[in-house]
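In the current project phase, the collection of sequences with tokenised folds has grown. A representative record is quoted in full directly below:
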Amino acid sequence: MRRFLLASVATLGTAGLMGAAYAQAPAGPPSAPTQGQSAWTPAASPPAGANNNNNYQAPALPGPVANPTPGTIVIHVNGKVQVDFMGLWSTADSRIAAAPAAGSQLATLGGNGAGPVKLQPQQIASFARLYFGGDGMATNGLRYGAAIELRQNFTGQISNNASSGASGYSSLNTMFVRRAFTYVAGEQWGIVRAGVGDGVIGIFDNGVTTFQFLPTGNLNGGDLQNWPTNVAPTFVFLGQAGNEYDNSKIVYLSPQIAGFDFGFQYAPNTSNGFGNGGGNNNLSNAISGAGIGTGNVCSIANTGCPGLSTGPGIQDGSRILNQAAFGVRYQGTFGGVGVLAYAAYEFSGHANYSGSTSAATLGTATAAGSQFNGSYNGLSFGSGGLAVTFAGLTVGGNIIGGNLNGQLALQPKNGVKTLGVLVGAKYVAGPLTVGIVGEEFWQQGNVVLTGISQYRGRAIDVGVGYTVAPGYTVFAEGLWNDQQQGARNFITGAVGQAAGAAANNNIRGMGFLVGNVVNF
């Protein structure tokens, strides 16, 4: 009875807010099928991620992934393919490019001219993802399992006659692990998840109070934010954001009592411990300008490596150490009104900067009056969200504020705090979803401009989705956003009025897309 009540409260609290409840798929043939010889009835809402109805809370809930029984394990392989047609326009679409420095990597790859550069506005974008998992139950009732999420990675195509063809470009694409965690759970004592996976904020929000109602992700690094760097604002609200879930951590979630549960997480840093023995090609290239293939060796303590507690590199002091968070969530219904609310507090230490504090080293010589000294404050911020649903209409929002600077980046000492507000609404009627979400936030932004100016980001997103058949959804979306910071050139990266930053200190973009996705 207790398990039934827990599952009922959690399901009612989340299903109405998400717009579609998990529905157990009809049982298939009792024997293992041979490919092409057996047809299966698809789940109404197939899994679309490593998180599922068995590993996201203390009780195992009915859903698209079958619940294991004592002495069994459920192995599942799922995936998705998504294709979008989009048009994108921004104030960074065109510029006058200078010739690359002789001997630089760009010059080596064929960049040898100066002149106008302009991007084509229309794109067709497609990607694939795979989700693997095992959900088991011991004979004594202990639940356990693991989940893996693989994603497709993309590399920019170089313009030269030998490699501009589609075949050469696609062979540069790779697959990478986005989530990988294990879990143990019991409905009487809670669930513990360990590995690369969502933290308290990501789990408690789950895209609901941040209104990620389309397969694109809306404002959370959505498909329509595929502009050049520095056009789309960073998603600071963290729910389902990569910087929130992609470090190795331990997360505990309690059982649900009267609609309430609480959670706690801890991570030593923002990396994976195996990174300490690896290399870092990107960092080495950025420092030395060397060609691809050289690496920053991290088998010994070295600037820029994961897990540093002290370093002389200009970015070493911005590393997060001992990241922790705790929060409380409520899910419930009152007379047909569904409520999801959560509040969380997150904090951390930071690595010590042991390098030079000269203006030339810190880059502050280009921004007279800068108060940046190479040091940072640890994380110390609050996050909260609320969503209320009645008769298919959900309204609500999210707020975040405190010591951080972007998506879990540290706030420089003497810099301003972050404050962000997001509001949204969506309406779900059977297979149809219509919604709108907007955000505005303020933070320090470029650390060199500490004490000089602060950053503002804004965006508004509208969209509609329609589930044509189980696992098949079509959608359309429109987006407008902008970013602004005084004395900062968003196109060239220069700072300070003397560098011409005033000419491009506000950058804007807008776009639309239509697309479809198949989840299986």
User: Anything to note?
Assistant: The first strand starts at residue 72 and ends at 90. The radius of gyration is 24 Å. The domain at 2-24+43-157+171-269+320-519 is CATH 2.40.160.10 (Porin). The chain has two domains: 2-24+43-157+171-269+320-519, 272-306.
